[in-house]
Amino acid sequence: MMKAATFQWLVLLAMTAVAVGLSQATLSDNAILAPVLLTTLIKGRIVIDRFMALQGAIAPWRWIVLGWLVLVLGLIGYAFHMAQT
Amino acid sequence: MWFFILAELLVFGVFFLAYAFARTRNVELFNASQLELDQLSGAINTVLLISSSYFVVRAVDQIRHGRSRSCTYWLLAAMTCGGAFLVLKLAEFGAKIEAGITMSTNTFFMFYLGLGFFHFMHVVLGMVILGAVTLKAWKGGYSAASYSGVETGAAYWHMVDLVWIILFPLIYVLH
């Protein structure tokens, strides 16, 4: 179990590096939006499901927190996309 | 505790969306102001909070196996990362204030300082909670049969981490 947690921690660090790298690259604002939000979604899901141990928890806790994550990131994506068009 | 955590997530969610939609009307201003932020400091703070969350996971695992002393050490490691986060954040705020930037400078900095300080206070509260749990663990107050206090403190700390995981790309990365 702790090997899995260590792996997830390393994935979280790698995803952070990817997001920072994307922001430093000479890419358009639109080009980095989806990948940065995707890495954030993956990171959030790891924290919710694995670190908070909500995967397999009694409903509806997991779905409420995951729903919050998806809704907030989705609306942030919509707002940033709207600002670029 | 979960009702409290959900309420906190809801409040942060509203602030995040307020920032994102306020930006749609001031894109140039937000992009120009964002360039004045120390992205490296934000990235280091992300590493610190993610690592502290991982250390808390290790602490919970140790107490599940009845290893109270080892649980204490992992919690201390988590608190060290949390403390480093607070020091870095204070330095970041200090640099902005020294540069004459306040909440009334513009809309971007109102959100940057407001959201940053609001999250900062949650980290402080998380440190207080982890401190109390660490002290009790050090005194042998938890066991493999009774460790709900460690789990509760861990859940709050992970919430603080989860919020930062969104706050960092929103304020420092996306443009």
Which CATH architecture of chain B?
Answer: Up-down Bundle
Portion of residues within helices of chain B: over 70%
Average pLDDT of chain B, to the nearest integer? 96
Q: Output the number of helix runs of chain B.
A: 6
In terms of DSSP E residues, the strand content of chain B is under 5%
The percent range for strand residues of chain A is: under 5%
How many domains make up the coordinates of chain B? 1
Helix content of chain A: over 70%
Integer count of domains of chain A: 1
Describe the model.
The complex is a heterodimer of chains A (85) and B (175). Chain A is mainly alpha-helical and 85 residues long. Chain A has one domain (2-84). Chain A is 82% helix and 0% strand. The mean pLDDT of chain A is 92. Chain B is mainly α and 175 residues long. Chain B has 6 helices and no strands. In chain B, helix 1 packs parallel to helix 6. The radius of gyration of chain B is 18 Å and the shape is elongated. The model of chain B has no long low-confidence stretch (mean pLDDT 96). The interface between A and B is large, with 42 and 39 residues.
